[in-house]
Amino acid sequence: MQTELGRERSGTGRLALMARLLTGALASVSTPGRAPTVLDCGGGSGAYAVPLAASGADVTVVDISADALATLRRRADETGVSASVHAVNGDVERLADHISDQFDLVLAHGILDAVDAVEETFAAMAGAVRPGGLISVLVANPFASVMARALAGEPALALQELRDLDAGVGPGIGPDTVDRLCRAAGLTVESRHGIGVFSDLVPGASLDAPGAREALARLDTEAADRPPFADLAGRIHLLVRRPAS
């Protein structure tokens, strides 16, 4: 699995980090003699589903976009994993209408930021993971947005976003909301990583120097689980375990 995911995401630090995190997640829920099962909620064109299938997983993707699923099928065909990738055209907010099985690993990457019924959607995802399985959650970090505004020379907008956060009216949801949802569902957050800690802050022009991109990728990786740096990342990744019993 390391080889396939790493090849799919070579050259970009944050994607390479996600590949390593998913490699470890899938390994921890795999059992000998059986292909691990993955549910990708809102997985669209298969950025994660296809490399996961190429590494030996059986992957079901639920997405409301027929165009994205067409791209998924094409990518799966081109990679030779079409038998291991199953496309389901449906609304993730009505997940129970489309999925009745339980999976070893459920991906919720960016989808909780996009749905209206966050609690209901998360509950359905939690119900779709088998006992002992994992949910991989990727959400935007509202605190990073404040920092990015300020560094972009927009202090008034940064101040407004900061006050919105204090008032509980910030855009989307953040990792603290995911923590709360996990506790309510009886799930345990096993790990938390900042994705792209510095990538979203470093000016692109500064990366033209020899070795700069590689150094930035290593910096992102080494800071990913180290507070306070990780808390400044544009996105936060959480691995959430459903108790085995």
How do the strands and helices of this protein lay out in sequence?
Layout: H1 2-8, H2 13-29, E1 37-41, H3 49-54, E2 58-63, H4 66-79, E3 85-89, H5 95-98, E4 103-109, H6 118-127, E5 129-140, H7 142-151, H8 155-166, H9 175-185, E6 188-195, H10 212-223, E7 235-241
Parallel strand pairs: 1-2, 1-4, 2-3, 4-5
Antiparallel strand pairs: 5-7, 6-7
Gist?
It is globular and about 50 Å long. It is built from ten helices and seven strands.
- Strand tally is 7
Biggest sheet overview:
7 strands, mixed
CATH superfamily of the largest domain: Vaccinia Virus protein VP39
Structural domain count:
2
CATH architecture of the largest domain: 3-Layer(aba) Sandwich
User: Element order, helices and strands?
Assistant: HHEHEHEHEHEHHHEHE
List low-confidence stretches.
6-11
Describe the protein.
The protein is of the alpha/beta class and about 240 residues long. The chain folds into 2 domains: about 1-140 and about 175-240, 3-Layer(aba) Sandwich (Rossmann fold), CATH 3.40.50.150; about 140-170, no CATH class. It has helices at about 1-10, 15-30, 50-55, 65-80, 95-100, 120-125, 140-150, 155-165, 175-185, 210-225; strands at about 35-40, 60-65, 85-90, 105-110, 130-140, 190-195, 235-240. It has a 7-stranded mixed beta sheet with strand order 3-2-1-4-5-7-6, with helices on both faces. α7 runs antiparallel to α8 (about 155-165). The radius of gyration is 18 Å and the shape is globular.
